[in-house]
Design goal:
The protein contains five helices and nine strands; from the N terminus they run E-E-E-E-E-E-E-H-H-H-H-H-E-E. It has about 240 residues and is α+β, with helices and mostly antiparallel strands. Helix 2 packs across helix 5 and helix 4 packs across helix 5. Strand 8 and strand 9 form a beta hairpin. About 30% of the residues are buried. The protein is globular, with a radius of gyration of 20 Å. About 20% of the residues lie in helices and about 20% in strands. It binds a DNA duplex (16 and 16 nucleotides) through loops.
Length: about 240
DNA sequence: CACGACCCCTGGATGC
DNA sequence: TGCATCCAGGGGTCGT
């Protein structure tokens, strides 16, 4: 099987994509002979998850039919990849460099570090909606539907606003909002709306911090006006007509 | 070239 | 109670 005998020597991430890097010493012999060297690119999609299981621990019943890959580790634990809706995926590359040119090649800068200048130059002066640009992983890597809405609200920018209408200050506020919203969500353990679970199976806590996502028709937490709902970039979008311009 | 529309997939919610 | 239908969304592919 792929990765049999491989030694995991590094784990990397860009945006929503994860890399498991193996190589160097063969775990089966431990004699320093080079073991299989692969780079596994993983994307969780919406419902994918990695789980660690003890030697005799069983998968939760609901996930068992959706287990797509299992690796047995040298300490007896198993690393399991499950994905009920199969929007996620795994792909092997012969080296980290090949992975970076392949699966990661088109990706923009990581969302946790993206600057206003980078957003402005990569989105360009197009008529495309700002939210559609945020969801485009080649503009910035790591922003999904929930955090695009939250970041637009935080920055006071309408998600439907054309990129061409954004000035330097607006891009700066938007990039700062993307970084802040994601940092806060990570601190809270992510957003469990329905499927998402942390690697130990527990739920995240950031759903309680959502200010617009999932709140269409309810009162804006900043001004009290009714939040609007629509479709932008083929995704459900919620915004405040008063607070965002 | 740029960008929008459509499709993949499953389970939970909703409607009858 | 049970069945049919709709909806959620990351991203690949296709069409405009």
């Amino acid at each position: 099987m792929l990765l049999e005998g491989a030694v995991v020597c590094d784990v990397a991430r860009r945006g929503k994509r994860l890399a498991i890097v193996t190589g160097a010493t063969d775990a089966r012999t431990g004699d320093g002979h080079p073991g299989p060297s692969w780079c596994l690119d993983a994307h969780l999609g919406m419902t994918g998850q990695f789980l660690f299981l003890g030697p005799r621990q069983r998968l939760p019943a609901g996930l068992a039919p959706h287990c797509h890959a299992t690796w047995t580790l040298s300490d007896g634990r198993r690393l399991v990849f499950c994905d009920p809706r199969r929007f996620g995926g795994l792909r092997a590359f012969p080296s980290l460099a090949a992975l970076q040119h392949g699966a990661w090649g088109p990706l923009g800068p990581d969302a946790l570090e993206v600057t206003g200048t980078e957003l402005a130059s990569r989105a360009g002066p197009s008529r495309r909606a700002v939210k559609a640009a945020l969801l485009d992983q080649s503009v910035v890597a790591g922003v999904g539907n929930i955090y695009a809405d939250e970041a637009c609200f935080d920055a006071g920018v309408l998600p439907t606003r054309p990129c061409a209408s954004m000035d330097e200050g607006a891009w700066e506020r938007l990039s700062a909002a993307v970084r802040a919203v994601l940092a806060a969500a990570i601190d809270a353990g992510g957003s469990t709306v329905r499927d998402f679970a942390r690697p130990d199976g527990t739920a995240g806590g950031y759903q309680a911090g959502h200010r617009v996502y999932g709140r269409g028709g309810r009162a804006c937490l900043a001004c009290g006006k009714e939040l609007q709902t629509g479709v932008v970039g083929q995704r459900t979008t919620v915004w405040c007509r008063t607070c965002q311009r």
